[in-house]
Structures are given as structure tokens and as C-alpha cells.
Amino acid sequence: MRIQNNQNLQKKKNIITFYFENKKMEGLEGDTIASALIANGVFVFSYGRKTNRPRGYSCSTDFCDGSCQMTVDGIENVKTCSRRLEPEMKVFRKKVTHHEKL
Ligand code: FES
């Protein structure tokens, strides 16, 4: 999901390859991890602790309680809305819940 045919966005950006839960994906130079995930159709970023309901990206400004937090290159609780995408990053949702076992 990206805006197409906008004159202000015509500048070609380099493609960055990264991995989300071991699946190879591509983002663009300048993407945050979250924007690259959304562009790849990933909308569930975490699960609520009490209810286990799927949680999406929320404030996008590094301001909320961090529903966007994921494990990035082995570092837990990285706010993906504010962290720039880098080549070969390995991104995982937080620990497996019963939802992911389905
Ligand atoms: S979406 Fe709010 S801190 Fe990332």
C-alpha cells in the first residue's frame, strides 16, 4: 500500500530487503519499520496482554504505549514507528500468544 503517481514522491528510492518473522520483504529507503510492514500488508503489530486482541500501529509518533513494539535484531521492545528500516533487519512480533498458535 503506497501512494502512486504523486509528483512530490517521484524520486526513486532504494529498495531495502528485510525479514519479518523469517519472511523476506522489501521496504524503501526512508521507511520506518512500521511503514515498511504496512506497505507489505502487515497490520497486526502486537497482541494485548490482557485480552490477547490484535493491536495495530497507533500514534506513529513514538508517543503512545507502544503497540508497535517488536523485537528487532534480537532487541526487544523496539518502537517500530520511529525506528528506520535498515538492510537485512530481522523483525518479530513479541512472544508467541495463543493467537499465533492457531
Ligand atoms: S505507534 Fe505509538 S509508539 Fe509506535
Descriptive report:
By secondary structure, the protein is mainly beta. It has a single domain (15-92), classed as 2Fe-2S iron-sulphur cluster binding domain, sarcosine oxidase, alpha subunit, N-terminal domain (Ubiquitin-like (UB roll), Roll). The protein has one helix at 33-39, and strands at 15-20, 23-28, 46-47, 54-55, 69-72, 75-79, 90-92. The strands form 2 sheets. A 5-stranded mixed β-sheet has the order 2-1-7-5-6, covered by helices on one side. A two-stranded antiparallel sheet has the order 3-4. The mean pLDDT is 86. Residues 57-60, 62-64, 66-68, 79, 81 line the site of FE2/S2 (inorganic) cluster. FE2/S2 (inorganic) cluster binds at residues 57-60, 62-64, 66-68, 79, 81.
How are the SSEs ordered, and which strands pair?
Layout: E1 15-20, E2 23-28, H1 33-39, E3 46-47, E4 54-55, E5 69-72, E6 75-79, E7 90-92
Parallel strand pairs: 1-7
Antiparallel strand pairs: 1-2, 3-4, 5-6, 5-7
FE2/S2 (inorganic) cluster binds next to loops.
